[in-house]
TrEMBL record, chain A:
Protein name in UniProt: Branched-chain amino acid ABC transporter permease
Annotated GO MF terms: transmembrane transporter activity
Domain of life: Bacteria
A GO term from the CC aspect: plasma membrane
Family: Belongs to the binding-protein-dependent transport system permease family. LivHM subfamily.
Subcellular localization(s) per the UniProt record: Cell membrane
InterPro entries, sorted: ABC_transp_permease (IPR001851), ABC_UrtB_bac (IPR017779), BCAA_transport_permease (IPR052157)
Pfam families the UniProt entry points to: BPD_transp_2
Topology class, membrane: Multi-pass membrane protein
UniProtKB/TrEMBL annotation, chain B:
Gene3D superfamilies linked to this entry: 3.40.50.2300
Protein's UniProt name: Urea ABC transporter substrate-binding protein
Domain of life: Bacteria
Signal peptide: 1-35
Lineage: Bacteria, Bacillati, Actinomycetota, Actinomycetes, Glycomycetales
Origin species: Glycomyces algeriensis
The keyword Signal is assigned to this record: yes
GO terms for biological process, alphabetical: amino acid transport
Amino-acid biosynthesis keyword on record: no
UniProtKB/TrEMBL annotation, chain C:
Domain of life: Bacteria
Principal location listed in the UniProt entry: membrane
Taxonomic classification: Bacteria, Bacillati, Actinomycetota, Actinomycetes, Glycomycetales
Keyword Cytoplasm listed: no
Protein name per the record: Urea ABC transporter permease subunit UrtC
Keyword Cell membrane: yes
TM spans (from-to): 12-30, 36-55, 62-80, 117-139, 146-165, 194-213, 234-261, 267-286, 293-311, 323-343
Topology in membrane: Multi-pass membrane protein
Protein species of origin: Glycomyces algeriensis
GO molecular function term, any single one: branched-chain amino acid transmembrane transporter activity
Localization terms from the record: Cell membrane
TrEMBL record, chain D:
PANTHER family: CONSERVED COMPONENT OF ABC TRANSPORTER FOR NATURAL AMINO ACIDS-RELATED (PTHR45772), HIGH-AFFINITY BRANCHED-CHAIN AMINO ACID TRANSPORT ATP-BINDING PROTEIN (PTHR45772:SF8)
Molecular function terms from GO: ATP binding; ATP hydrolysis activity
Domain ABC transporter: 5-241
GO cellular component: plasma membrane
Record keywords: ATP-binding, Nucleotide-binding, Transport
Species classification: Bacteria, Bacillati, Actinomycetota, Actinomycetes, Glycomycetales
Species this chain originates from: Glycomyces algeriensis
Domain of life: Bacteria
Signal sequence residues: none
InterPro entries given in the database record: AAA+_ATPase (IPR003593), ABC_AA/LPS_Transport (IPR051120), ABC_transporter-like_ATP-bd (IPR003439), ABC_transptr_urea_ATP-bd_UrtD (IPR017781), BCA_ABC_TP_C (IPR032823), P-loop_NTPase (IPR027417)
Name of the molecule in the record: ABC transporter ATP-binding protein
Length: 294, 423, 358, 253
């Protein structure tokens, strides 16, 4: 019984981690069709932001609160540079974007290795997040609750921004119909750059948060990237709602499957489920219908 | 009237046939010896006529394993520099040819072959993962050359062409179990990464536990590099085991210990015995998450002996005061000295002479005296249980009575009869 | 130049020159070790030809060729381990690595691989069949572009993880320590050269097959599907079938390359077939020129050579170089080296006309 | 004059938006049948439905065979060809290769895997018919805009389509080209049914055998050019005949 409650929470928690990692992708890949393989390295940049902030500030709690917005800016700034230097020249060639950003990811990993060294560095968990709280007889780590809450906040903010702000309406307009948006006087250049900034910034935030539970090393981002892409693929292009449902579903599936089998087989199982699922709904859970022939 | 195209050839059936014919011809003219026939052994090209002798250092300088393997390389260089400063081996200066194994077994195999056949080195030092050793083994056997392998491993291997200077299972796993049994542990939870070492180690632990009446309450494997330990820690926590035996590798340890501490498990309640966490790894995990936990090795930086003081001082002088020394580094350092001592004893760098003279060669190493076993090419080692303390270093809390003879096939343990394999 | 190579005489002389270099010059000039290395690189080149077909001509960016490469390699490795065990300990003996893993009974699915004929048949059929099934599953549902790329990449990851978990397939360590290749001693230098010849011969055959596929009506159709899939569908073709053929051919090439790779290198492990090795296959193809025939071969050889030559001196610099190559070549030179040749030719032609006019 | 295609009570629903709402349409061989109507009237969606791209309810029957539920390429193989608003040809391939591919949907795998030695007779004939015989070896990508449209029509002809659904075939053409295209359409229609989605009213007047006006997903009127332009409901939709051109400009913007 304890284990069951624990596992259900684990599913939710794994889902929230996936969601945090995938939310930025859902914007850049989903809304813009850009496959940013360096997204994982932006997450890693967030991790190291948390590390550096902690080295400077000292107190783990204060530095976490500072690192979250700073991580957003660091990730966002890297995203802007990437968009401006490379991605904007490749909007017509999505597959090439994938390979180019993979190259960027390789370079960033090596930069991290040369700057911070190859071994993992330690980001101390603040006192108020240590230990667990009792939930129906199971100890649930506070760090995971924090990440769950952060994921909820991030999704809510992104959804509100998209729905209610002028910038968000512009983004949705460009996604819906780029040409029409242009004729309506929306600069799709600025919108693209802005979307990339937000998406990459979210990766930075995810990185800061993930230092609470995982390691901070040059290869950290890699461990989240493929799963995050699968979330976006299963969730459907351009749909935050889809990403949320897919992340929680995949997280729960993984956690439950792992209880009755091994972690390795659970990973393989996730892949099989996604391929089968795409047979049923090739465009993902939720789709935007357009009349274009692409 | 149909219009003719300007394309010329019809199709390539004929060129295909021709290619196949050329290949077949080349093949029939090129067949060598078949199974069962003797193959002429590859001629060794080692040249020691000058005043230097070449050795290879083969470690991963790039890729995931570079974290660990670069430290081993530093130790190898330190030993070589010391030996050279003291006059070299048989009066010859040692010259290192360095190669990058790139964390990939195929690259290890390729580079080992290059070191032997192109660079003509007398011996190679390096390798870390069992996968890399398994990849290199046939290369060293086929070319009849020598590898000195410095990392603790899962045992069940003894090649004429490899010297194993790290611990085999009866010098690390079994003493760790003895220690746990002595401290009254009655039930164990096994957590490991999904590869050969943890699986073999856990097979041994299961056999040991069956014999000694210890209950194994769980056995879980995480994918290598996995950082999601919620499920496993939940299960560990729910199991109520007396202790955890941890054979996780690399970044997984970071995530595991964080999760472990976060659900409120402590070293007092449920100690974790780790066999892959050394001084280098503690920093990344965060001392607050792992303080008080146990490790099983043969060497710690904190060992108090003249030989170790010399080693640690020399290492810090060379590579910086903030650097730490660890078990695999020490074993690599020893391996160079053991090779040099064997060559001195044999009066030759020839592989056959080294193999013949190896038995009984000893070295006053930082961990104590180590002696080569000529039979299985492993070395005697003292087992030590270490506790991780607040300064991030490991301190000996228990050590075996004297050096333990290497027994890679566990022939001296009756309860391990089912694990033994025919070599 | 390229005109010439489009003629029959050109094709013949191209193949002739390649055969001369591979079968004549290389064995004479290279040491046994270097020749073995070249054989390994040729295996990568065989994979590259298939990627050139699927990606360059068919527009399917397959980031999971490691799966098919690995299938071919593991199937061959299974046979070689079986043959080895049989030779040492008689029929039905358990291969050495299984003993180490505590497996005392030969798993049933290993048994048929004692037969060389069965093994070769499986190498040709199994990966290709899997590619056909998977291809139908995704292409019929019109999963394409980035979706396909990411799925194929996830497939490579899942396959590697699956293998790591299988102790009866060697787990993380993979399969190694082979002694015989269809009865021939692998430590004999003559037999090592024979393996090189096989690799070289297979590469020429694969290039010839790819050439035929490109120049046939099918090849034109494939380009048509790449550039305007819907148009092809509205002309009455099932575009999925067309794509599946190229995808399966690429899978077959990769599987054959894997099967040769194992005796040449002496080990196959999950580290050689996962996500990163799979994407590295792409690098050579991109550099050489994805849409050209010989470009992927040249690119794959160049990248493998550069990796070997540079990584030992500058391990950190090589990683930067890899990353920068991806960025620079794909962003600025999507046609690869092959397009440089075409560009200079056009430039020369232009200056020639200018001169003629003057 | 025989009926080639009969559409009955076609409905297309995009997430609640009724793009086509109960359309009946008959295409006869020997006619150039124009489909007109303001933007969003459902013209292209109707073509999408008939060719299998959009899901619909209702019935489309060609030569006695129900097409609903068949896959795109099966419908195409039954002789229904379409073009797109922007001419879609294989730009990397030559004109002759484009036509050869279009002619070969029924080829056996074996002949596909071999090289083409001579051009099929029907390809040669169509090259003449669409006026591109001189450009047979030109890559389609560098053809003029109008030539691409002709090539796309030619691709349907060599594929033996006898129902041609053409989406704005004269978009971007000059006067002379329009007339050539119009004559070509009539030549084609001698043995086939041709439907043209078009905004250009002059072109429609000059070449339509029959006109169907769609509005808000339904048929507003159908008949000869005169009948339709005298229909008051049609005039209302187009804001009166005198303002016709402005209305069209607005509609095409």
């Amino acid at each position: 019984m304890d284990l069951l409650v624990g596992q259900l929470f684990t599913g939710l928690s794994t889902g929230s981690i996936l969601l945090l990692a995938a939310l930025g992708l859902s914007l850049t890949f989903g809304q813009m069709g850009v496959i940013n393989m360096a997204h994982g390295e932006f997450i890693m940049a967030g991790c190291y932001t948390a590390y550096v902030t902690q080295q400077v500030v000292g107190d783990a709690g204060v530095s976490l609160l500072i690192a979250l917005p700073v991580g957003f800016l660091v990730g966002g700034a890297m995203g802007l540079v990437l968009e401006w230097l490379l991605v904007r020249h490749l909007y017509q060639r999505p597959l090439d974007t994938l390979l180019v950003t993979f190259g960027v990811g390789l370079v960033l990993q090596q930069v991290a290795r040369d700057v911070f060294g190859a071994p993992a560095v330690n980001v101390t968990v603040p006192e108020f997040l240590r230990g667990g709280v009792d939930l129906l007889g199971t100890a649930v780590p506070k760090t995971r609750l924090f990440i769950l809450a952060l994921a909820v906040v991030a999704v809510t903010v992104v959804a509100l921004v998209l729905r209610f702000t002028a910038a968000g309406r512009r983004i949705r307009a460009v996604v819906g119909n780029r040409d029409l948006a242009e004729t309506a006087g929306i600069s799709s250049r600025a919108v693209d750059a802005g979307t990339f900034f937000i998406g990459s910034g979210l990766a930075g935030v995810a990185g800061v948060a993930l230092t609470l539970i995982g390691s901070t090393s040059p290869t950290t981002g890699q461990s989240y990237l493929v799963d995050a892409f699968l979330v976006v693929v299963a969730g459907g292009m351009g749909r935050i709602k889809g990403a949320v449902v897919a992340a929680v579903a995949l997280g729960t599936f993984q956690a439950v499957f792992e209880t009755y089998s091994t972690a390795s087989l659970a990973k393989v199982g996730v892949f099989v489920v996604i391929v089968v699922f795409l047979q049923l709904r090739p465009q993902g859970l939720f789709t935007l219908r357009t009349r274009s022939l692409a | 009237m149909p219009q003719r195209f300007t394309f010329h050839p019809r199709d390539l059936t004929r060129s295909l046939a021709a290619t196949a014919a050329v290949t077949a011809l080349a093949l029939t003219s090129a067949c060598g010896s078949r199974a069962g026939e003797e193959t002429a052994a590859a001629e060794s090209c080692v040249d020691t006529s000058g005043d230097t002798v070449k050795v290879g250092a083969l470690n991963s300088l790039s890729g995931t394993m570079s974290i660990s393997e670069t430290t081993v390389r530093d130790a190898i260089y330190l030993a070589v520099d010391e030996i050279n400063a003291a006059g070299g081996v048989q009066g010859k200066q040692i010259e290192i040819v360095a190669e990058d194994g790139a964390s990939e077994p195929t690259v290890f195999a390729e580079k080992a072959e290059k070191l032997i056949r192109e660079d003509c080195v007398a011996a190679v030092f390096g390798g870390w993962t069992s996968a890399s050793r398994k990849a290199m083994l046939p290369v060293f056997e086929d070319n009849d050359s020598l590898l000195y392998y410095p990392v603790q491993y899962e045992g069940l291997e003894a090649s004429e062409n490899i010297f194993y200077t790290g611990a085999t299972t009866n010098q690390q796993i079994i003493p760790a179990l003895d220690y746990l049994a002595e401290t009254g542990v009655k039930s164990l939870y096994l957590v490991g990464s999904d590869y050969v070492f943890p699986r073999t180690a856990n097979a041994i632990i299961n056999a040991y536990a069956a014999d000694k009446g210890i209950e194994i309450v769980g056995e879980d494997y995480a994918q290598l590099g996995s950082v999601e330990f919620s499920t496993i820690v939940n299960q560990v926590s729910a199991s109520g085991a007396d202790a955890v035996f941890n054979t996780l590798n690399g970044d997984s340890n970071v995530a595991f210990f964080r999760e472990y501490a976060n659900v409120g498990l402590t070293a007092e309640q449920m100690p974790v015995m780790s066999v892959s966490i050394a001084e280098e790894e503690v920093g990344g995990i965060g001392i607050e998450n792992i303080e008080g936990q146990l490790a099983a090795w043969n060497y710690y930086q904190t060992i108090e002996s003249p030989a170790n003081t010399t080693f640690v001082d020399a290492f810090k002088a060379e590579y910086g005061a903030d650097r730490v020394t660890s078990d695999p580094m020490e074993a690599a350092y020893n391996s160079v000295y053991l090779w040099a001592a064997t060559a001195e004893k044999a009066g030759s760098f020839d592989v056959a002479d080294i193999q013949a003279s190896a038995d009984g060669v000893s070295f006053e190493s930082p961990e104590g005296t180590v002696v080569i076993d000529g039979e299985n090419h492993h070395v005697t080692k003292t087992a030590r249980i270490g506790e991780i303390r607040a300064d991030g270093l490991l301190y000996t809390v228990w050590e075996s009575a004297g050096a333990i003879e290497p027994d890679p096939f566990l022939e001296g343990y009756e309860w391990a009869a089912d694990l033994q394999v025919s070599e | 130049m390229s005109r010439f190579f489009a003629t029959r005489a050109g094709v013949w002389s191209g193949f002739g020159a390649a055969a001369l270099v591979l079968f004549g010059a290389a064995p004479l000039l290279l040491s046994g070790f270097r020749l073995g290395l070249l054989a390994q690189f040729l295996c990568y080149a065989i994979v590259a030809v298939g990627i050139g077909l699927a990606w360059g001509r068919g527009g399917m960016l397959t980031l999971g060729q490691g799966v098919f490469f690995g299938m071919g390699a593991y199937l061959m490795a299974m046979h070689m381990k079986m043959a080895d065990a049989e030779f040492r300990n008689g029929h039905g003996a358990v291969p050495d690595f299984m003993e180490l893993a505590g497996i005392r009974e030969l798993p049933a699915y290993w048994v048929p691989f004692a037969s060389p004929v069965f093994t070769i048949a499986m190498i040709l059929v199994l990966p290709t069949g899997f590619a056909v099934l998977l291809g139908f599953a995704v292409f019929k549902r019109r999963v394409k572009g980035a979706y396909f790329a990411i799925l194929s990449q996830a497939l490579a990851g899942a396959f590697a993880i699956l293998l790591i978990g299988q102790q009866s397939m060697g787990g993380f360590n993979g399969l190694s320590r082979f002694r015989y290749f269809f009865g021939y001693n692998l430590d004999d230098a003559v037999n090592q050269q024979m393996l090189y010849f096989i690799a070289a011969g297979v590469l020429l055959v694969v290039v010839a097959v790819a050439l035929q596929l490109r120049r046939s009506r099918y090849g034109e159709l494939l380009v048509a599907v790449r550039d305007a899939e819907e148009r092809v569908r509205f002309l009455g073709y099932d575009a999925a079938n067309i794509k599946v053929v190229a995808y399966a051919a690429a899978a077959l090439f990769a599987a054959v390359a894997g099967a040769i790779f194992v005796p040449v290198v002496g080990i196959i492990s999950p580290a050689s077939i996962g996500i990163v090795p799979s994407i590295m296959f792409i690098l050579g193809v991109a550099i050489g020129g994805r849409a050209s025939l010989v470009g992927p071969v040249v690119g794959a050889l160049a990248v493998a050579w550069a990796q070997t030559a540079l990584s030992e001196q500058f391990p950190s610099a090589w990683t930067y170089a890899q990353g920068l190559l991806f960025i620079v070549v794909i962003a600025l030179l999507p046609g690869g080296i092959a397009s440089v040749a075409a560009l200079t030719k056009r430039f020369q032609a232009k200056s020639a006309t200018v001169e003629a006019a003057a | 004059m025989t009926t080639a295609l009969t559409c009955t009570n076609i409905h297309v629903d995009f997430d609640g938006f009724k793009a086509v709402n109960g359309v009946d349409l008959t295409l006869d061989r020997g006619e150039v049948h124009f489909l007109i109507g303001p933007n969003g009237a459902g013209k292209t969606t109707l073509v999408d439905a008939v060719t299998g791209l959009a899901k619909y309810s209702g019935s489309v029957v060609k030569d006695g065979v129900e097409l609903r539920g068949k896959k795109v390429h099966h419908i195409a193989r039954r002789g229904i060809g379409r073009t797109f608003q922007t001419a879609t040809v294989f730009e990397q391939l030559t004109v002759a290769q484009n036509l050869d591919i279009a002619a070969g949907a029924g080829r056996s795998p074996w002949s596909l895997l071999r090289r083409r030695t001579v051009l099929p007779d029907n390809v040669v004939a169509v090259l003449e018919q669409i006026g591109l015989a001189g450009q047979a070896q030109t890559p389609a990508g560098i053809l003029a805009h109008g030539q691409k449209q002709w090539l796309e029509i030619g691709m349907l002809l060599v594929g033996d389509a006898d129902v041609l659904l053409l989406d704005e075939p004269i978009a971007g053409m000059g006067h002379e080209e329009r007339d050539t295209t119009g004559r070509l359409l009539h030549e084609i229609a001698e043995t086939r049914a041709v439907a043209v989605v078009e905004h250009d009213m002059d072109f429609m007047r000059a070449f339509a055998s029959r006109v169907t006006v769609l509005h808000a997903g339904a048929v507003l009127a159908s008949g000869s050019v005169d009948e339709v332009s005298n229909d008051p409901r049609v005039q209302e939709v187009y804001l009166g005949a005198s303002h016709e051109q402005e209305a069209i400009d607005a509609a095409t913007a």
